[in-house]
Amino acid sequence: MTAWISVIGISDKGLDGLAVDRANLIENADVLVGGERHLDLSSNHAGLRIDWSEGLGQAFDKIEMHKGKQVVVLASGDPLHFGIGAKLVKRFGAEVLRFFPSPGAFSLAAARVGWSIPDVQCLTVHGRPLEAVNLHLYPDAKMLLLSWDGRTPQALATLLVSKGFGDSRITVLEHMEGDKEKRFDGIASNWSPDQSADLNTIALECIAGPDAVFWPRLAGLPEAAYIHDGKITKREVRAATLAALAPMPSETLWDVGAGSGAVGIEWMRSDVSLRTIAFEIDETKQSVIQTNAKNLGVPGLKVVVGDFMEKHAAVTTKPDAIFVGGGVSKREVLETCWDHLNRGGRLVANGVTVEAHRTLMDFQSRHGGEMVRISVARSGPVGPMTAMRPLMDVLQLKAHKT
Fold first, then answer.
1. What is the CATH number of domain 106-205?
2. The domain at 5-102 falls in which architecture?
3. Which of 50, 324, 360, 395 has the most neighbouring CB atoms within 10 Å?
4. What angle do CA 83, 88, 91 make, to 5 degrees?
């Protein structure tokens, strides 16, 4: 199939920074697509112009109407690195697209501060929660961040101070490669520029103070990492549960009876491409789950409040894995989860009561799977001595839907 959409990345130099062949594509385009800032660069273009003001969906529908014509989409830097490129590929298919990237903000920023990109975490908080940074906070970490607007650097500095990383070094790079390029360097705890240019990229070098809060990415975080009411899957059992769920990149988990959200949160922390939909019947726990998710760097976790049996049908994203922590004693919950699980998916359920054990064994007799009994004891004082205090045993079911 002939490519009819050209996607051209533009730096802050504007059209003057483009090679002749790319400038010619823009000049001869039947349809020019882009944001207001990019379209203003080619104000003399005589063809049809489509912007993003009514949303990507409507803009893509308009592009579709001109199939076969020469359509040029103007984008920033590298369109396939947190840019419009991936959405265009998903909608139109790679075979009709040609990409002409310019050096992206990450490459330019790394060049300004002398960092090797493979050694740096590249993130965007453009249109995304700033709390995603929390996932990547650890001593000596380096990050490059695409800002949402001119207020992002100050918001980032405030977040770092709240996490005990107030000594971290921040560099704000505005309008890189343009006539208005500027650089600001400072420390999070006394960051002074109240407002930066909206077009800015941040280089962050994390320096942990004595009270810094950060956690490993592996499953089994201590209960102290969460806000909870005591009814939380204990860290030893949680680690075994995540191992049984076996997350793979880009998969979706349903966390049924989420409680504090710990299992779903640690599922997402293991890889940035993973997603969790948490079902919780107790409305008061919604804010707890969301706060825990933000604190631990996975603010994209979605919470569905209400009875799972009433709410699950409205969720269109089907799961690759399901964890049932609440409602295990109800046979209909497990059966509904099994019905909705994608083929090749894993269902893991933990039970501590006799009633839950009966339900799990009944489920195994019909659908198969493995049963594991998890016994944990923790040390604690007994007078002047120390003894091992057992926690409640957990019967864990893992079933694979082939």
1. 3.30.950.10
2. 3-Layer(aba) Sandwich (3.40)
3. 324
4. 145
- Residue appearing with tokens 């054990």: 357
Rounded mean pLDDT, 345-365: 96
pLDDT tens-digit series, residues 20-62: 999 999 999 999 999 988 988 887 887 899 999 999 999 999 9
What does the alpha-carbon distance between residue 135 and residue 299 come to, in Å, rounded to a whole number?
10
Longest distance between any two alpha carbons in the chain, whole Å: 87
Do 202 and 153 form a contact (C-beta atoms < 8 A)?
yes
Whether residue 194 contacts residue 221, with contact meaning beta carbons closer than 8 Å, is answered with no
What class has domain 223-400? alpha beta
- Do 241 and 233 contact (CB within 8 A), yes or no? yes
C-alpha span between 85 and 9 (Å, rounded): 10
For 280-303, write each residue's pLDDT tens digit: 999 999 999 999 999 999 999 999
Structure tokens belonging to residue 127: 């249109």
Q: What is the pLDDT of residue 109?
A: 97
pLDDT for 42 equals 83
Q: How far, in Å, CA of 359 to CA of 330, rounded?
A: 7
Find tokens 């049908």 and name the residue.
313
- Nearest CA to 261 out of 236, 224, 286 is that of 286
Average pLDDT, stretch 194-216? 93
Q: What is this structure's pTM?
A: 0.90
Cβ neighbourhood burial of 89 (10 Å; 0-12, 13-18, 19+): middle
Residue 1 burial (10 A CB sphere; 0-12, 13-18, 19+):
exposed
- Percent of all residues in the chain with a pLDDT value above 90, rounded to a whole number: 88
Residue 255, CA atoms < 13 Å, CB-side half-sphere: 29
Cβ–Cβ < 8 Å for 267, 335:
no
For residue 388 the two structure tokens come to 């091992």
